[in-house]
Every structure is written in C-alpha cells, then in structure tokens.
Design goal:
It is built from five helices and four strands, in the order E-H-E-H-H-E-H-E-H. It is α/β, with parallel strands linked by helices. The protein has a four-stranded parallel beta sheet. It starts with a strand and ends with a helix. Bound molecules: 4-nitrophenyl phosphate (4NP). The site of 4-nitrophenyl phosphate (4NP) has 11 residues, from loops.
C-alpha cells in the first residue's frame, strides 16, 4: 500500500498543487512511484474545479515541473483517507485542526516548513495577490521542503 500524502492550502490553485506536483517529480526521480501517492486540496471553495494558477504553472515550468490537477475542497474524510496531511501555512493548519474538534487526526497534520532544511520559514507565503517573484519564491521553498519530506519518509522505512 502506498503512503498517502495530501498537501493543503487555501485555494488549491497555487501552493498545494505545486507541492503535489513537485513531490511527484521528486518521487519519480527517486524511482519510488510505487511507494507514495500524492494529492492536494484547499480549505476554501473559491476555486473548485479550476486548474493550477497560470503564474504558478509558469514558475514550476521554469524548473522543469509540469503542474496538473483540478482544485477541490478538503473533506473531513481526507483525515482517514491520507496518512499525512501537510498544510502550507499556519492558517491552513489551524483551519484543518478546527475540522477535527476531537483531535483524533491531529497527529497526521504537519506544516510544510517542518520539512525544510535549506530555507528558514514558518509559512509558505500566499503568492496570489503578489507578482511573479512571489511564485518563484514559493517554488524554491517547496523544492526544499518536499525534498526534506521525501528524505524523512525514506529514512523511516
Ligand atoms: P493558494 O493561493 O491557497 O496557494 O491556492 C490562493 C488562491 C486563491 C486565493 C487565495 C490564495 N483567493 O483568495 O482567491
């Protein structure tokens, strides 16, 4: 059974689809596609059904990563469906925990920044209302933290 990872942001059109596709890229490069399965979701319903944001797609493409997917909202059933749920920022983290009032699944919910090794940050910043540089910066943070996450998961097995 593959280990299932869900990346979560607000809209599921910028940060979390980038994280999902970067993680899939790293997993594929490592020859581990049988071992891991990734998805992404948003805490909001703003962009349900939309493809990844064109600015995020352009930033990823510069690094050779194609963004695929269609936005969906996080569902409470995702707590049981996934082994690990990775929030992009502290707002997303709090919003996820509020959907689990009994705290049954808190142990599965982590912050993306927990896995970074090269960059120091708490939140993957929301790039939506900023310029292209913000999207490029998000890619840098996600490449670092997805690599750290993959390394940590591999060291566990
Ligand atoms: P994301 O970015 O959470 O990284 O997908 C955003 C996308 C849309 C909005 C905010 C953030 N919005 O307010 O519509």
């Amino acid at each position: 059974m593959p280990f299932k990872i869900l990346f979560v942001c607000l809209g599921n059109i910028c940060r979390s689809p980038a994280a999902e596709n970067i993680m899939n890229y790293l997993i594929s490069e490592a020859g581990l596609t049988e071992d891991f399965c990734c998805d992404s979701a948003g805490t909001s319903s703003y962009h349900i059904g939309s493809p990844p944001d064109a600015r995020m797609t352009a930033a990823a493409q510069k690094r050779g990563i194609i963004l695929e997917g269609k936005a969906r909202r996080f569902e409470v059933s995702d707590f049981t469906e996934f082994d690990l749920i990775v929030a992009m920022d502290r707002d997303n983290y709090r919003d996820l925990l509020s959907l689990d009032p009994e705290g049954k699944y808190h142990h599965k919910v982590k912050l993306m920044s927990d896995f970074a090794t090269q960059h120091q940050f708490k939140d993957v910043p929301d790039p939506y209302y900023g310029g292209q540089r913000g999207f490029d910066h998000v890619i840098d943070l996600l490449l670092d933290s997805c690599q750290g996450l993959l390394d940590e998961l591999r060291s566990r097995s």
